[in-house]
Amino acid sequence: MLKKILILTLIINIYSFSFAQTNNLNSQFQIMKAQSTNYQEFKVIPLGKLDGFWNIVLDTLKQNHNQISTLQKQLTDKQSEIASLKLQLSEKENQLKKNDYESSRVSVLGMKVMKDGYVWFSFIVIGLLVFLFLFIFIKYRAGDHIITEARKDALESKNQAEGLRQRILEVQTQ
């Protein structure tokens, strides 16, 4: 797009400059024609004026050629600048993609993992650990209750055995 605009500007400048030069040449030609003398149906133009007009034409052509060369050099410079900017843009885009990739991932055990996936995985693992902890805690409480009952029963059995032993001793002593 920028290239098309530069070329269009170049063409407009050359056309307007050549149009101005053409008007200048046309006016010079009209002046030369008006100052010339007539011979039958021909115009007689002195060689000095004709040479002067020819020099003006050559100067105008040289100026146009110089301006075209300058504009072509400017166009070449702009094209190389555009190519350089395109290269910089592609480098920036690649760097942006790389940064986006790096920022959206986390290294876990040497593997690159998406942050969202890692967060979900962490929540699931933590949930499972909490569930496991609750399961073990409930089993512990149930086991503790059973052990407490068993101790109570063992104490009762010991007390009964002690009571029976004392009765047996009493019966034997009597």
SSE arrangement:
Layout (H helix, E strand, L loop, with lengths): L1 H34 L1 E3 L2 E3 L2 H57 L1 E4 L2 E4 H59 L1
Antiparallel strand pairs: 1-2, 3-4
Helix pairs in contact: 1-2
Series of secondary-structure elements, N-terminal to C-terminal: HEEHEEH
Strand content is 5-15%
Total helical segments: 3
| Adjacency order of strands in the biggest sheet | 1-2
User: What average pLDDT do the residues reach?
Assistant: 83
Which secondary-structure class do the elements indicate?
Answer: mainly alpha
- What general form does the structure show? rod-shaped
Q: Uncertain segments of ≥5 residues (pLDDT<50)? A: 14-20
Tell how many strands the DSSP assignment holds: 4
What count of domains describes the coordinates? 2
Helix content: over 70%
Query: Quick one: biggest sheet?
Result: 2 strands, antiparallel
- End-to-end separation in angstroms reads 126 Å
Radius of gyration: 54 Å
